[in-house]
Amino acid sequence: MSDAYKGILIFIVGPSGAGKDSLMAGAADALSQEPNISFVRRLITREAMAELEDHGTISETQYEEMVEQGDFALHWRAHGLGYIIPKTIEDDLRAGKTLICNTSRNQLPVAHQKYPIHVINITAPVELRAERLAGRGRENKEEIEQRLNRKVDELDPALPQTTISNDQSLAVGVEKLVHLIRAVQK
Question: Which superkingdom heads the taxonomic lineage of this protein's source (predicted)?
Fold first, then answer.
């Protein structure tokens, strides 16, 4: 990892339906007046559902070209989609910013080698996750079952991390996340 990075990259992880996007949207709103904190806009090969998530949409061809050219900080595939975290985060980290990003657990070891990171693991009971997944209307019942039954690897205990149980109101979850972001930032 480069010593040039003065900021920190806070990764938000958790199983499908844990409420990551909702908590991040609420935290982004609550922290919008803090210039040293930014929420990273990922690029995904799927149209964004404006009310549920904020990301840039790219085609499969664009994804493949960016990966081939090394034009990314991190990239991965999940649920049949391609995801990219833009390389521009490196400039923000050099400038000392706190960056928050939703990512895949399998990217954490790579990210930990490249950047100063902290992982916030959002959890919720399976029944609540099922209800949330059904409510967002992106998957059918079978696809929801697959997401709920997908094995989620444990986080490496060597990674700096904190867990939030998102089993109360959205306001309480957002408050917990905002508190943690402020506590973790450099």
Answer: Bacteria
pTM for the model stands at 0.86
CA 1, 69, 109, 120 dihedral sign is: positive
Give how far Cα 12 sits from Cα of 55, 60, 104, 122, 173, Å: 15, 24, 9, 7, 13
Distance CA 168, CA 19 (A): 11
- Residues at the binding site are 14-21
From residue 167, give the alpha-carbon distance in Å to each of 126, 129, 138.
10, 9, 21
Burial of 2 (0-12, 13-18, 19+ CB in 10 A): exposed
Report which residue type is found at 80: G
Binding-site annotation, residues for ATP: 14-21
Fold type of domain 8-40+91-184: Rossmann fold (3.40.50)
Taking the C-alpha atoms of residue 128 and residue 135, their distance in angstroms, rounded to an integer, is 11
